[in-house]
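Handout, section 3.2

Students often ask what a structure token actually looks like in practice. Rather than define it abstractly, here is a full record for Flagellin. The first block is the sequence as you would receive it.
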Amino acid sequence: MTSIHTNLGAIAALQTLRSVAANLTVSQQQAASGLRVAAASDNAAYWSIATTMRSDNMAISAVSDALGLGAAKLDTAYAGTAAITDILGEFKAKLVAAKEQGVDRAKIQEELSQLNAQAESIVESASFSGENLLKTKSTLPLLEEGPMTTSVVSSFVRDASGNVQVKTMDIDLKQSSMLNEGGGGGILQKQIHSVGDIGGFRGTGVNSVAHQGHERHKFTGGVTFAAGDTITFDINVDSGTHSTGNDHTLTIDKALVDAALGTTDGIVASPAQLRAVLERAFTDNGVPATAYESLFSGGGSTTHFEIGSLETSGHPGSSITISNVASSFASGAYPANFAMGLEDAPDQNHDNMYPGASISFTTAFTVSPLAEVYFDVQVGPGATTTYTINRAVVDAALGTVDGYIGSAADLAAVISQASIGSNLMAVASGNLISFSADQTVYPEAGNPAARVYVGNIQSNPPYAPDFDLAEVDITQNVRTIDQYLRGVDHMEKMAISSASQLGALQTRIEMQAEFADKLSDSIDSGVGRLVDADMNEVSTRLKALQTQQQIAVQSLSIANSNSETLMQLFR
């Protein structure tokens, strides 16, 4: 049907042309922008996700920049800490050299002063962007200071609920600070509440027991007993501070010798034979002693004989003493009063041994209100008990209010005060402190004597130097070189620990920065999958649409030419 009112062919061609033109516009926009979803109208869901992720990616980029800044701070602090660790190693080497005899300590002190100045210079210069992780400015000692953390940005996080968060890594300045202006307590400074080596008490390890009284004599030669020859002597066993012991008078003659040795010639030719003779004399006369003691000489000595207490006398002492030696061998081959060595004083002698040990007092110190010292004590058969020294104990023992312990006598009084009830005696003599059992409770000497144990010395806070690195002076007698060595070694350990922590944070930041780069790439890739146009597909579609557009134009032209044909019918 052909109509002069409606050109159906032209209408169809025009609709096709419009559709092709619209699709061509879309494809041209995709080709120009490279985006399949360029606006919310293209795909609201994908556009929203892509826009949010692009925003997050910008935040991640900012985190990467912040990580770079944090890494620079840590690199600077680590370099400074590593340099100070090397300096402390040199410091220790100089202190060791100062222990040699004849060394010029004044010259070494000059080197130590320069090393300290270099350490302080490193601390001052270890700053990046105005922040120095090796130097703090607290008016309190670091031990008393609250949290002193600084942080570096580590990550940007969006959780499942859509909430965003910036994560940080904390750095504890109390662990990295070399110098704290004001209150002190940095790695190169004294710990205000430290008790140092506790006046020499810290390393105590007394674990003392005793043994029976005994003495050794040199055998001065053999002898032949004839009828009427005798050696007589007095022997006292187990006399001591708390008792007089047992006294015995013994006689050695030919009958005793032959009975002891199973002979008939009365000859005593060796220390071993003299031991046997003395043992028979002790047994026959009920003397609580033995001639087979071997603590000094061993069992087979060819030059000495040794006697000791059996500790069966019932007396608390543990001793043995020979006196009043008289001999019939006074002429001829034998010197006057010859008695095979019994007549001579012993060359080694242990009588009435009580367990105990001594320590030397080193340096005065103060027990602050925040400091405590703990030590274990066992006296006699009782259980090991832990005792505590704190400010209250110090002041109660010394009648003071400042916790100051300035001498061996002070420390002995404080230890005694702290360990009341333990039966431990701590007695000062000059610069020494002696530990022993209370003899009014444990009067027995020798093997029955009470065991004395004092050890496991701990403190809170733990050991830390009670001097600054800048205070080390080996030309003065304030502290021993060993004390300085221990303190500097502790500083070195703390510096190494700090360097380890900084190094671990460096590694973590490097890993986080690498992850941030990968995360940013992943987000770019994910957003691209959502909104990027496939350019191969777009170019192919664009070419096809351009061809369709040309055909649609030609179709419209043909449709419009039909009306001209119709007009010819009316001419």
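Discussion prompt for tutorial groups: The radius of gyration is 49 Å. How would you have guessed this from the sequence alone?
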